[in-house]
Amino acid sequence: MPAQSLRQFLNQAGVGYLVIQHPPAATAAEVAELTRIPGRCFAKTVVLSLDRELLLMVLPVMRQVPLEALASALDATPRLATEAEFRGSFPDCDLGAMPPFGGLFGLRTLCSDELAEQERIAFNAGSATEVMVLDWDDYARLARPELLELGP
């Protein structure tokens, strides 16, 4: 089942979404492959640490986290957060399956502008065995991510 907080949030907003079940996978790229969702539409959510603050970075599954481009865009140097740093920050989510809605967890959400070019966005739904698919416009309106141009 998708994370309870996410499901309630989307239902209260009256947003339609699709939930896709899949076998457990180690990476978001594997999930995209298992669910046959194109990598350009499948968003992975990465937890970053920036000046002792946790934030979410959302980017297409086929992209590496561009720390140098982020440092330039943010005028600060982020790094990948350790599991110990974010353990407990996503109480109703399986580890590594955080949805790209930082606001649900009191976190800032950064997002690659590449995802904004897609009609729909797919992402881990807080469960290691479920993906949600949502219209990009609904995601952008509800998550209010800060779009960043991260280059090639």
From TrEMBL:
Annotated GO MF terms: aminoacyl-tRNA deacylase activity
UniProt signal peptide: none
Pfam family, one: tRNA_edit
Residue ranges annotated for the YbaK/aminoacyl-tRNA synthetase-associated domain, each copy included: 22-142
InterPro entries the UniProt entry points to: YbaK/aa-tRNA-synt-asso_dom_sf (IPR036754), YbaK/aa-tRNA-synth-assoc-dom (IPR007214)
Protein name per the record: Deacylase
